[in-house]
Amino acid sequence: MNTEQRMEVCLRHERENFLLDVDFSVSCRGVIAIFGPSGCGKTTLLRLIAGLEQGQGYLKLCDEVWQDETVFIPTHERPIGYVFQESSLFPHLSVLRNLLYGYRRIPYRQRHVKLEHAVELLGIGHLLQRKPQGLSGGERQRVAIARALLTSPKLLLMDEPISALDQNSKAEIMPYLQRLHSDLAIPVLYVSHAADEVAQLADHLVLMKNGRVESQGSINKMRKHLHLTSHISTSDESTGFEATVIDYDDAFHITYLEAGGVRLSVIGIVASVGESVELSINAEDISLSLEPIKDSSILNMIPVRLGSMAERKPAHVQISLDSGLGPLLAHTTRKSVKELVLHPGKEVYAVLHNLTVMN
């Protein structure tokens, strides 16, 4: 007899020129990634589940109905933790007082996550007396996650919690997110459009497109049959290339690769040393610099030669790049083209912000 508890979501919500109409059922455990391009309805779905917006339909978590034709549980009565892109910590409170703000409002017998456990799980013991403005982006997000956990939620909602971080900060926080997966029994709905995050964290993938669920299944099934990264880009202007794994840094959880004489870095274990992988990068994830950028958190920066340039939209220009990785596409603003005096044939540096592993 199958006694697995499930989360059942059947919600419809219309506003302006957008219709969200989703219907899916997933296990009430593990990390469920809500995945798809910008504008597909991921954040709207989370807000409906949180009760921050009210649509029509049915919502059940395990054995609790949060919404149906006669019931609508308001947000403050839903046992959820919510982590946003920005940490939204109280700037005038220390880290400890930020953590205690919600924790003290939970009756003692309902505290399923203890303060000491959350502090240890997120590795923030040394930060407790500091103020948020004295923390790095990754540290602030770890505190925000700990604060959400200390409300002892039955469901943790995470809306692109590391998308605003630089690559070093993402590398710093990823092991802690993986610990949430392994150490807690709380189901997590994790919104993202970054394939590397999803591949490392998720058990189950709900793939969205144009306000609907296009497909869903285990992460292994979806990665194999649906080519995960083909649904990531905010545009179709991405380029792919092949790279070979040359090393792995266990201390920092980074894989090093080589392609066309160029050394690259990606977060996590992507393949064994000597194996080849397909990488992809979107044109919008490439920035241009006249000089090498020193003393920064940038992981991947390569020399390139500018090729053809074409205006796209009133403010933007598309530029082809000749690089050791092969031809690439980049988007920049007309303002940047003028101020940097960019023109075909000019040699500059391309900063690669979000390399995606395709296999």
| CATH class (first level) name of the largest domain | Alpha Beta
Q: β content, as a range?
A: 35-45%
Shape, per Cα inertia axes: globular
The chain-level mean pLDDT equals: 87
Verbal overview:
The strands form four sheets. The protein has a six-stranded mixed sheet, sandwiched between helices. By secondary structure, the protein is of the alpha+beta class. The longest helix has 17 residues. The protein has two domains: 226 residues, Rossmann fold (3-Layer(aba) Sandwich); 120 residues, RNA polymerase II/Efflux pump adaptor protein, barrel-sandwich hybrid domain (OB fold (Dihydrolipoamide Acetyltransferase, E2P)), CATH 2.40.50. Helices cover 21% and strands 37% of the residues. Strand 17 and strand 18 form a beta hairpin. It is globular and about 65 Å long. Helix 4 packs parallel to helix 5.
Question: Which terms summarize this structure?
Answer:
Rossmann fold, OB fold (Dihydrolipoamide Acetyltransferase, E2P), 6-stranded mixed sheet, 8 helices, alpha+beta, 359 residues, 2 domains, 5-stranded antiparallel sheet, 20 strands, single chain, globular
Give a quick summary of the entry.
With 359 residues, the chain is of the alpha+beta class. The chain has helices at 42-50, 95-103, 115-122, 137-149, 167-183, 195-201, 219-226, 334-339; strands at residues 6-15, 18-27, 31-35, 56-61, 64-67, 80-83, 155-159, 188-192, 204-209, 212-218, 238-249, 254-259, 262-267, 276-282, 286-289, 301-312, 316-323, 326-333, 347-352, 356-357.
